[in-house]
Write a structure and sequence with these properties.
5-stranded antiparallel beta sheet, 1 helix, mainly beta, single chain, 33% strand, 91 residues
């Protein structure tokens, strides 16, 4: 895994990296369960469990503006793709 770290990146809940099997950099925004969330929902067992996560394919870091390193032959059409997973209830 290749990770982007910059001083402008928030300390918690946000990460930017590319997995070994991916061809795009992704911005991940994650909401983790707090003690209060555990009291209000029976779906989570531990503080820090992932409540939801959004992933967005990006070309530049939205926090520092740096262009992320190219990853070989990348299809530009993949950028802007996003996926949101909500783990706060059974559907």
């Amino acid at each position: 895994m290749n990770e982007h770290n910059c001083k402008a990146l928030p300390k918690t809940g946000v990460s930017i990296y590319v997995d070994e099997d991916e061809t795009c950099w992704s911005l991940y925004i994650t909401q983790e369960a707090t003690e209060q969330d555990l009291q209000q929902s029976s779906y989570f067992e531990n503080v820090g469990d992932t409540m939801w996560q959004t992933r967005l394919h990006i070309l530049h870091c939205p926090f520092c503006g740096e262009k992320l390193p190219e990853l070989g032959s990348v299809d530009q059409a993949n950028y802007g793709y996003f996926q949101h997973n909500d783990f706060s209830s059974w559907k």
